[in-house]
Fold this protein.
Amino acid sequence: MSSPERPQRQRVVLAHRRGARMVRTRVELQEQTPVGDALVRGLVRAQLGLALRLAAVVLGVVGIVAAALPALSQASIGGLRLNWLVLGVLIYLLLLWAGRLYVRLAEQGERDFVRVVDGEP
Amino acid sequence: MSGSALTAAALIVAAVATMAIGAYGVRLSRTTSDFLVASRTVGPRWNAAAISGEYLSAASFLGVAGLIAKYGADALWYPVGFTAGYLGLLLFVAAPLRRSGAYTVPDFAEFRLGSVWLRKVAMLVVLVIFVFYLVPQYQGAGLALKTLLGVPAWIGPLAVGAIVVANVVAGGMRSITFVQAFQYWLKLTAIAVPALALLALFAQQGGELGGPLPPRLAEDTTVTVETDVVLDIPAPAGITVTGTLDGRAVRDAPVPAPGEHTVAAGSTLHLPAGAATPVVAGTPAAGSDWLASGNGLGGPHPRLQVLSIIIATFLGTMGLPHVLVRFYTNPDGRAARRTALAVIALLSLFYLFPTLLGVFARLYVPQLLITGTADAAVLLTPGAAFDGALGQALGALVAAGAIAAFLATSSGLLVSIAGALATDVLRGRVRDFRIAALIAGLLPIPLALSAANIELSRSVGLAFAVAASTLCPLLVLGVWWRGLTVPGAAAGLLVGTLSSASAVAVEIVGGIDERLLGGWPAVIVGYPAVLSVPLAFATMVLVSCCTRRTRPRDVAQIFARMHVPEGLGMGVERVPRD
């Protein structure tokens, strides 16, 4: 925005601007002003949406597995029946994957929330 | 040293180690907060090990393998559900529950809805779940000590009760955390080593699991039946019965024809080497049926059974007070999430081994399938498969793991109920906590001795059904739905408790005849979650919608406290009132 020839205009304030705004948004949050309430509602909606989406994925896979199990009973890999392999081992990997993904995304969501509250860009 | 002496020594070592670690924790326990929530200082690793240690009860350590040996592939849903419950807990409950700052489940109810009256209702529900969960633990202890050492069945509940009460009374949550974390690793070792040894043996010798015939006995065997049982005897050649067969008193009589026969309690069956093992009627006899999915767990309507097991176990974990209370010990919501994830990992690792043991139990101790006490499978398989010192040593190790399972779960349950009783009924001081622990630990002992025995995993599964129909809807709706009201929550708790607990009560008394109305009543009573969970959720939502005006006015503040991350100055830790 500023041309390279002219020195950039600087504004001098008493305290660091970010800190001042941070306190104000935090107060809005704590005193449940309409702004604070909207922020919290957004956070809750985001976290619930994330949890529901992941739960739907896991339940969908479990449903498909449950429906396919009688058919899987007929096949085997290396002497191990597929229905035992799926229910005894693979399904746990699915649970672990979903859990890890959730922890990562939920923490991400919370960091974003804190950034909004603290007024960082 | 003889086998049972070695086993007794292992049991005593496990019990003494438990007491010693508990005593170490006692030195750190001073304040009420130490006793209730370990002063909220337990990190994810310790807490995850402690939760897993407490959660892997006798039902997991003994019951899962027994069910797999008996029913085959469909029983695999139990461990899957027991683990998946923590995913549900992670997704929907863990962090907000911790951030609420509550210290027991009833305290959360009061925090969320601001009603002391609802708090008492929640306390009663916690008490119901506690009894349904603790009684099978005590019964399992009785069965284990009887199987291992031949002592009378009442010694087990008494011994476990005494040790647990002593630990909890002395040190509360602080000291129990160390004990339970230690017991997870003990249980993992105690089940993994024998399972891997059996796997090596199986790889060496081979064996037939999926054939068209039932498993065969390796040597002459005599089996005593301890409860009346209907047996499916596919190949009766050579099998003789002394006692009561099909209502007639007999002595060394051959079984007249293949098919189902009733054998009364106290009868003995003599089976020659190589005989095809009779199995309890309703369980898969042929190896090929046992390997296949879709046969259910005995009785009609296998699909509904499996669905109900999935609902109860996926959602039940979210309503287990002794698990929830451990999440209050984390320092913050983030640690609570990481704890739940670590628990999933620890449980996934653990459940590989009961599955293996269940498979090998069918191969090496098929006579268990006759008596129906398949819960002993884990205890007896190592000794049956290996001769001499190795078998004895593995058997002793498994016994130590089993006693750890009873101790860890019972102490966790006792801490949670003592916390609730001490703060809700008594005045919430350390002394009250101790009195509550003493009473709550001793009362279930007579119940355990008088109630009927059903398979451990199934009876614990029923406790899960009660939890899934009561505290689970309260927490999930409380955490995510602003519209929940006190009348709604109370009505849901009441309907959920009545529908699930009455089914459990009928099942404990003996269940419903499978021939009634095409078997539907029997399967609904035996596996109530499929009906009671939706009923409880629906009641809570409907009644809340009808009593819209009684919504707490500060609900926005409460939601902010539960969901806003720490560090923004929203959190408040609740402490018991004086």
Residues 34-72 of chain A form the longest helix (39 residues). The radius of gyration of chain A is 25 Å.
